[in-house]
Amino acid sequence: MLKKISVILIFFVTLLSFKNLSSEPFVVLSYNNASELGDRDNEFTKNPDYYAKHKIAPGESLNLIIKNYYGNSGLNKYFLQLAIVSLNSHAFRNRNVNYMVADENIHLPSINQITKLMKGIEFKTDEESFSRTKNIYFFGG
């Protein structure tokens, strides 16, 4: 008797689960390995690891720098401003976009660096060469 009840219960649960599954929409997302920005005519979007350095000229604005370097990239200008100010706090008074310091060198981040910045992953803004402190030495026999 207990076996019949459990079989009937399993049958109804299965029947109800199929009914619930068929009532929900089924969405299939296609994954394309190519970058969505790769077909644009900009070095930053052609190579996600490309970054640049820029020396701020007197009277220059951050929007002009973004237009010159990231123009036609499709990247959001305000998000780029935040990323640049965040990485170059030495070149902005009180982290304000409107108060850039002339003759300072700033790092213009790559798309991969912006992604790491957004995720909170630390990275170096300069190309690192191997130094003795980064190598592993083994002494012994």
First-residue to last-residue Cα separation = 75 Å
- Give helix and strand order, one letter per element, not per position: HHEHHEH
| Main sheet overview | 2 strands, antiparallel
- Principal-axes geometry comes out as elongated
What's the number of helices? 5
Strand fraction equals: 5-15%
How do the strands of the widest beta sheet line up side by side?
A: 1-2
Radius of gyration: 27 Å
Mean pLDDT across all amino acids: 77
- List how many beta strands DSSP finds: 2
Spell out the blueprint of helices and strands.
Blueprint: H1 2-23, H2 43-46, E1 52-55, H3 62-70, H4 77-87, E2 105-108, H5 111-119
Antiparallel strand pairs: 1-2
Salient structural properties:
single chain, 141 residues, mainly alpha, elongated
Structure, described:
With 141 residues, this protein is mostly helical. The chain has a domain at 43-126. It has 5 helices and 2 strands. The protein has a two-stranded antiparallel sheet with strand order 1-2. The protein is elongated and about 90 Å long. The model is unreliable at 127-138 (pLDDT under 50).
In short:
Helix content is 39%, strand content 6%.
